[in-house]
Amino acid sequence: MGKKIVNKNGFSFVEVLVTLAILFLSLSTISVFMAKSIKASREAQNQIIATGLAEEGVEFVRNFKDRNVAFVSGVKSNGSYIVDKDTTYAGFTTNAGSGKLYLNNGGFFVHAAVGNKNTKFYRKLVILNDVSKVTVNSYVSWNPTGSFANCTIANKCLLVSSVMIDQ
């Protein structure tokens, strides 16, 4: 009868450590997933921009082809070209730069570096002439080297191809 039962309230040190470890692992896992999600969304954004730039390149060539009777004879088959909103037809047929794109104050991608913001994007057009059609391959790369070799999404490069039939 002399023993008294004491009921201790609260948590033991081991319980607190286990709880903190579980909390730390949970927060670490969430942080890793958030970082991967942010990286994936940035890459998706780059793919969307690159797709728009590639389609824009094809449309520039389509515009030149529709407006110039001598288009087929004026461009080299298998020739590489660069084009942007400021390119004229005469400049287009003689132009073959690096393809580096810059962002101007109006929000347009251009090839002129002076006074414009640097971007990670490069665009190159390859035109294949045939008797009755013109095939335009518009390559856009956002890899650091600007390389169009082995153009795949995994290599941060994409290709939009368009066949334009002569009428």
Number of beta-strand segments: 6
In the residues, how many domains can be counted? 1
Order of helices and strands: HHEHEEEEE
| Overall SS class | alpha+beta
Instruction: Determine the strand fraction and express it as a percent band.
Output: 15-25%
Provide mean pLDDT, rounded: 87
Our measurement of the CA-to-CA distance between the termini, rounded to an integer number of angstroms, reads 110 Å
Uncertain stretches? none
Radius of gyration: 28 Å
Helix content percent band: 25-40%
Largest sheet: 6 strands, antiparallel
Shape: rod-shaped
How would you describe this structure to a colleague?
The structure is a single chain. The termini are far apart. Strands 1, 2, 3, 4, 5 and 6 form a six-stranded antiparallel beta sheet that branches. The chain is an alpha+beta fold. Strand 4 (117-129) and strand 5 (133-141) form a beta hairpin. It is built from three helices and six strands; from the N terminus they run H-H-E-H-E-E-E-E-E. The protein has one domain. It is 39% helix and 24% strand.
Topology:
Elements: H1 13-67, H2 71-74, E1 79-81, H3 89-94, E2 100-103, E3 109-110, E4 117-129, E5 133-141, E6 157-165
Antiparallel strand pairs: 1-4, 2-3, 2-4, 4-5, 5-6
Give a concise summary.
The chain is an alpha+beta fold and 167 residues long. Helices cover 39% and strands 24% of the residues. It is rod-shaped and about 115 Å long.
